[in-house]
Amino acid sequence: MYTLARELLFKLSPETSHELSIDLIGAGGRLGLNKLLTKQPLSLPVSVMGLEFPNPVGLAAGLDKNGDAIDGFSQLGFGFVEIGTVTPRPQPGNPKPRLFRLPEAEGVINRMGFNNYGVDHLLARVKAAKYKGVLGINIGKNFDTPVENAVDDYLLCLDKVYQHASYVTVNVSSPNTPGLRSLQFGDSLKQLLEALHRRQEDLTEQYGKRVPLAIKIAPDMSDEETIQVANALLNAEMDAVIATNTTLSRDGVEGLEYATEAGGLSGAPVRDKSTHIVRVLSEELKGRMPIIAVGGITEGKHAAEKIQAGASLVQIYSGFIYKGPALIREAVDAIAALPK
Fold first, then answer.
1. Which residues fall within 8 angstroms of residue 183, CB to CB, at 6 or more apart?
2. Per residue in 249-279, pLDDT tens?
3. Cβ–Cβ under 8 Å, residues 74 and 133
4. Active site residue 174
5. In this predicted model, what pLDDT tens digit does every residue of 148-191 receive, in sequence order?
6. Backbone angles phi, psi at 52, to 5 degrees
7. Which residue of the set 174, 266, 274, 312 is catalytic?
8. CB neighbours of 174 closer than 8 A, spacing ≥ 6?
């Protein structure tokens, strides 16, 4: 059924297709129909960050930026759902066109630029949702907030989403907001992490519950840079690392239509880069911090590869666009089949 739906959706522009899909998934969720569209995955519970997940396969941030289809996505069998990236104020994002399919490579290039309706809209959608499972909320900075003031945006978002999220992801790795990736390194990263940790402690006391913080990093770092980031996260007592965001590399898509478009590349072409970062992180962290792996999962075996590389959870983004809901169960099955 999804193959036919994809054929129709792919006749539309990528962004129109995306918006229509969110509308349809959201409507199906409100009607309780989405659970009928695909076989539900097996129960494969896992405990990560002090949270209980019914299975280790989640929806990555970016597909549902505003939280408009939380119930719809959860009914498709995801073990957890991450929404966002959301910013303090609404913003339109970059000029269109800004989303490009590379079907020959099962890839997607986007330069969306954190287009979203703002954190207050997202919170209204979270409150309206019936979903009671694990919900991640991914936060970022507004495009016109100077990088030196980025901490203020992250803290504002953290304050607002804290009591409504199962965990909060801090996005410092999108290539589509000028200067954002500089926050992954050196003193900028140290200051951001320290500020986040202090605020997390304050909010824990205020609300009587500790909401884990995950940091999402880029795939375009050297092994040495990845190790430095891993140690910075440990020193700041962060709760998890998400590896990885989209890549600026065009390896594997050379010569394809749209390959030279600016933006971050996701899907199958980023798989090996992402998995390598997971391995480097795993070797350095040695189980002291969980890794959530995302990037290039278009078949169940790719999810299993991420787990074997050291991840505790995986997330799907572009693979869902190309393969549909059946990929969720396939990924869970492949992970379940791994030797214990």
1. 147, 150, 172, 189, 192
2. 999 999 999 999 999 999 999 999 999 999 9
3. yes
4. yes
5. 999 999 999 999 999 999 999 999 999 999 999 999 999 999 99
6. -105, 120
7. 174
8. 85, 114, 140, 180, 181, 245, 246, 264
